[in-house]
Amino acid sequence: MDFLATLQTSPAALAFAAGMLGLCMGSFLNVVIHRLPIMMRAEWAADCAELEGREVPDSPVFNLMNPRSRCPGCGAPITAFQNVPVASWLALGGKCAACKAPISARYPGVELLTAVVSAFIAWRLGFGFALVAALAFAWTVIACAFIDFDTQLLPDRLTLPLLWLGLLVNVGGTFVDLRSAVLGAVGGYLLLWSVYWGFKLLAGKEGMGYGDFKFLAAIGAWAGWQTLPLALLVSAGAGAVVGIAMMVITKRGREVRMPFGPWLAVGGIVCLLWGRDAVIAYLGRFPA
User: Fold this and answer.
1) CB under 8 Å to 288, separation ≥6 — which residues?
2) What pLDDT was estimated at residue 252?
3) Which of 17, 111, 243, 267 is the most exposed place for a label (fewest CB within 10 A)?
4) Rg of the chain's alpha carbons, rounded to an integer?
5) Exposure pattern of 91-100 as b/e (b: 16+ CB <10 Å)?
6) Is the pLDDT of residue 99 over 80?
7) How would DSSP label each residue in the chain?
8) Do the beta carbons of residue 162 and residue 137 sit within 8 Å?
9) Which among 54-58, 99-103, 121-125, 280-284 has the top mean pLDDT?
10) Contacts of 183 (CB under 8 A, 6+ apart)
11) In terms of Cα–Cα distance, which of 212, 136, 158 is closest to 36?
């Protein structure tokens, strides 16, 4: 009880606790980011084989829990000590303990990002149900962002539950009223659906995937239809800045495809935390 009382009365303690929790969750998100696309491809291959009448070969169990994490270079199991977020990577010098193969700095990067975002959300929202919900939202969009960055896929396994969870969270008006949440889900999907077909008709090619529609629909379900313009503005702005920077640095042309999911994730977090304030500042009120 004393611990809970401290979290309720001390924003610093709450932010620290959320940051530590985010650090641990970031370690799990690394597993999700790596394994979920592999699981999806295995399921697609099995579905194709079944449709073609071919026998689906037995394969070892592979999911988010099994098998244990291993070094991709030598296959050595990762021990509990080597799974300590950030600290184990630093202690090992960014290398496998067995074969000394380099371990990507992105693993501790995801852990630190999740910790910082979690701590800031706790500082912003304070103790309560809204904090728990917002952390679940942030962790999910971080996973979506990195999976899309790696594979240009936004898995239905993440975007659709995120959408439904947003509607459930807002049944009691946690972030917006339920009407705004429902209209946000519908409007988010239709906005990017319209952009997709408009671009395809004009340019003769696809400019984004259907996963982006569902992702923006999920953001609308959490933050309301009123914040959708802000979500698109922030997403497009962040994507444009990073895209131009990458073209300058890599000296590659505009034909290089860039995923939109990471920037939608940024826009979603901004809208959840500041969307209402931004709309009120612009319109003088938050329309129902």
Assistant:
1) 177, 179, 180
2) 63
3) 243
4) 21
5) eeeeebbeee
6) yes
7) -HHHHHHHH-HHHHHHHHHHHHHHHHHHHHHHHHHHHHHHHHHHHHHHHHHTTPPPPP----SSSSS--B-TTT-PBPPSGGGSTTHHHHHTTTB-TTT--B--THHHHHHHHHHHHHHHHHHHH-SSHHHHHHHHHHHHHHHHHHHHHHHS---HHHHHHHHHHHHHHGGGTSSS-HHHHHHHHHHHHHHHHHHHHHHHHHHSS--S-HHHHHHHHHHHHHH-GGGHHHHHHHHHHHHHHHHHHHHHHH---TTS---SHHHHHHHHHHHHHHHHHHHHHHHSS---
8) yes
9) 121-125
10) 220, 224, 225
11) 158
CA distance 92 to 76: 14
Residue matched to tokens 């997403």: 235
Give the type of residue at 40: M
- Can you read off the two tokens belonging to residue 26? 């970031």
